[in-house]
Amino acid sequence: MKSIETNEVLKVIKSRRSVRFYKQEQISQAELDLIIEAGVYAPTASNNQPWHFTIIQSKEMLQYINKKSKDLMSKSGIEAAEKAASNPNFEPTYNAPTLIIVSCRKDATSNFGSEDCAAATQNMLIAAESMNIGSVWLGIVGLLFSQKEEAIKLGIPEGYQPSYGVALGYKGKETEQIALKRSMDVVNYIS
């Protein structure tokens, strides 16, 4: 059996961190295709595959998402969101050149659809890291995505509910990716 030190998948999982500084160079289509493919191959209850991925690379649309999300954050009643929104330099997508909006088919939400979409998102984050592409899972932009008129503007297909976003881009800062210490006291066995 391979040790953690030699297992490439475990090394990528342990080295993946949320990246909040990006180069403005767009990731390649081939890299994006592989990241999406990783999402599509996520575990899915009853092979339901309830996800839909909307790719946004338009600078104008990303600026719009940042502005509208920041406006909603400032009135959200969520202390951390309001504090972040008060910073004039804060951008909810961290100026990443690519944003993937992950949506779930509405008729699948009671059949583990949300969990399936979360698994797809995690697969994409790990795939990005394996290619040295930075990523961050964006939950707060869900404030914008949850508004029906905004979902229409973003091209979310009818019958899907957008949940969150994944920002992607080449890392703007190369730092050693050291995992914070994790508690291993979270397991019990029943034999």
Topology readout:
Blueprint: H1 8-15, H2 29-40, E1 51-56, H3 59-74, H4 79-85, E2 98-105, H5 113-130, E3 133-138, H6 142-145, H7 148-153, E4 160-170
Antiparallel strand pairs: 1-2, 2-4, 3-4
Helix pairs in contact: 2-5, 3-4
What does this structure look like?
It holds the Pfam family Nitroreductase. By secondary structure, this protein is α+β, with helices and mostly antiparallel strands. The protein has a single domain, classed as NADH Oxidase (3-Layer(aba) Sandwich). Helices cover 37% and strands 16% of the residues. The protein contains seven helices and four strands; from the N terminus they run H-H-E-H-H-E-H-E-H-H-E. It has a four-stranded antiparallel sheet. Helix 2 packs antiparallel against helix 5 (113-130). It is globular. The mean pLDDT is 90.
CATH homologous superfamily designation: NADH Oxidase
Q: Could you estimate the helical fraction of the residues in percent?
A: 25-40%
Beta strand %: 15-25%
Largest β sheet strand count, sense and barrel closure: 4 strands, antiparallel
Low-pLDDT runs: none
What is the third-level CATH name, the topology? NADH Oxidase
Principal-axes geometry comes out as globular
Which radius of gyration do the C-alpha atoms yield?
Answer: 17 Å
Q: What is the residue-averaged pLDDT?
A: 90
Query: What kind of oligomer do you see?
Result: single chain
With helices defined by DSSP (H or I, 4 residues minimum), what is the helix count?
7
Instruction: Give me the count of strands.
Output: 4
Just give the CATH class: Alpha Beta
- Architecture (CATH level 2) name: 3-Layer(aba) Sandwich
Summing up helix and strand content along with how strands pair, one would put the structural category as alpha+beta
Distance from first to last alpha carbon? 23 Å
